[in-house]
């Protein structure tokens, strides 16, 4: 039974749904929120346009394509062209959202992203679809698990990894109204919707989804749900109370929220569907190493490539399931006492 | 290359049907994957593995083998099925396609499966690597040939055109590019998404020798390869006209089959149709 009243204080303050009620939890791919948000942003401002590289369905451009065809351009399989052309359009006042699989944009187009979007300070927005190993059967070539690294390293870039489709819509709208080069990342598969319409969203402001002072779990993307499940189980079975932080904005990261979580809990676990090397967790480690050294455990892909398989099977295989998060919390907790 | 006797041609036509059957079975078992392009290249892959190429299934890394690169890696099922049907591995292994732990990754991987030559899937990268292999053969005085299979939509990728220029500059007459000209891509017709025509003239302008043929006529394809290989001092391209989904009538010509597999019911219909095709070939003996 769904019962938000018994959720902890932080979850209620964030207007989360009862994520423990797995039977009634709604599931949608995060990219759906992009499609909805883009259409709304484009309706509100005719300078908001979409440019597609032969992936209109996968990237959820179809809503815009059908409703506002004059604000939609199709250029075929040409991801470098996507970025460069968008740079030109932005220089003349457009707000272009360019979308492909994350592997190809920003994967293939990285130097154009760095020079044309960031060094140039243009208002181009990248939507990176099908990030993570949960892409599944397509295999390693299509599973972007390095994209956060290559984007967070670029000055001026906004890097946002929303936790569910409802939040992805809010992020799309917010980023459409925020000047600057942007990377918005989402996944292929359906995933649990933990936020509601009433949940606040602000770029650069991390959100506490669960209160606790034993260990802080700092997560982004669809794995926020796994983090919440792990925290719930640890509380019930071991009396370990985790603070769960939805760290959706990887850049500019909310340093105050990270430091507060580390100071309150004294141990941190980071969770992302990405290489551990140079990902969101690495940024957390950089902040804490400089300002408040704290034991950290990292959940993510450990310096390997993905492969074909069922999405859930791959999340488990690469150590990103909720059981792996629980184990990491226990390790972090033990290091805290040592 | 040996001459293609009528008997051998019939065997190859028969084999192409086996290759299509393997594709359907693999895609059904996988529950995802790319039907249209895989099916439409079955005749050409059969001709390549069954007649054109110098290769040893029992020794996939034989250094003298001709190199075959599949640039448009999403149609991996046709390559896997051709390899299985020409003795590289048991046909049953096709049923592991796209599953956890398989050698038959959703997009082909060089380290998983010997002789696929390179990992592909990200479009537009095959010809450039073929240029490197053909140039290495020239430098070493090796006589293997390099075949690159590309899709039509890959011609929207800039790198492919860089490779075209480079191949002509280095006069790589040991390099043959084969285009799956099926006129479709994910979002629809190539000519609507990003027009490619006049494609043959573009290759000519880049100093390539251009051939065109019916991609479903094995005899015509083999004859075209022979003419191409007689060319000296220039890379060659065969623009093979194909029908997406060829061999399974409800898929033929329909771009929406680019990236989806048949369901159980549809696979049954497809396999029945392929069985009938096989009967027809036998009846013509
Ligand atoms: C660089 C890159 N961008 C995008 C994709 C996604 N994608 C896969 S196949 C394809 C195009 C399909 O058209 P074509 O290559 O002609 O293959 P066909 O549908 O004829 O099999 C695209 C855009 C990709 N694989 N690589
Ligand atoms: Mg095509």
What does it look like?
The complex is a heterodimer of chains A (about 350) and B (about 280). With about 350 residues, chain A is α/β, with parallel strands linked by helices. Chain A has 2 domains: about 160 residues, Rossmann fold; about 160 residues, Thiamin diphosphate (ThDP)-binding fold, Pyr/PP domains (Rossmann fold). Chain A is about 40% helix and about 20% strand. In chain A, strand 10, helix 8 and strand 11 form a beta-alpha-beta unit. In chain A, helix 2 packs parallel to helix 7 and helix 9 packs across helix 10. The model of chain A has no long low-confidence stretch (mean pLDDT about 95). In chain B, helix 3 packs across helix 9 and helix 5 packs parallel to helix 6. A 5-stranded parallel β-sheet of chain B has the order 1-2-3-7-6, sandwiched between helices. A two-stranded antiparallel ribbon of chain B has the order 4-5. The longest helix of chain B is centred in the N-terminal third of the chain and has 25 residues. Chain B is built from 10 helices and 7 strands. Chain B starts with 5 loop residues before the first helix and ends with a helix. The mean pLDDT of chain B is about 95. In chain B, helix 9 links the parallel strand 6 and strand 7. By secondary structure, chain B is an alpha/beta fold. The interface between A and B is medium-sized, with 31 and 31 residues. Thiamine diphosphate (TPP) sits at the interface of chains B and A.
Task: Name a few traits of the molecule.
heterodimer, A: 338 residues, alpha/beta, Rossmann fold, 2 domains, 7-stranded mixed beta sheet, 5-stranded mixed beta sheet, 12 helices, 14 strands, 19% strand, globular, B: 285 residues, 5-stranded parallel beta sheet, two-stranded antiparallel sheet, 7 strands, 12% strand, binds thiamine diphosphate, binds magnesium ion
The proportion of residues in beta strands of chain B is 5-15%
Distance between the termini of chain A: 40 Å
Please name the fourth-level CATH homologous superfamily of the largest domain in chain A: Thiamin diphosphate (ThDP)-binding fold, Pyr/PP domains
Report the average pLDDT across residues of chain A. 97
- What CATH architecture of the largest domain in chain A would you give? 3-Layer(aba) Sandwich
Which architecture of chain B per CATH?
3-Layer(aba) Sandwich
User: How is the largest sheet of chain A built, in terms of strand order?
Assistant: 3-2-4-5-7-6-12
Largest interface: A-B, 31 and 31 residues
CATH structural class of the largest domain in chain A: Alpha Beta
The domain tally of chain A reads 2
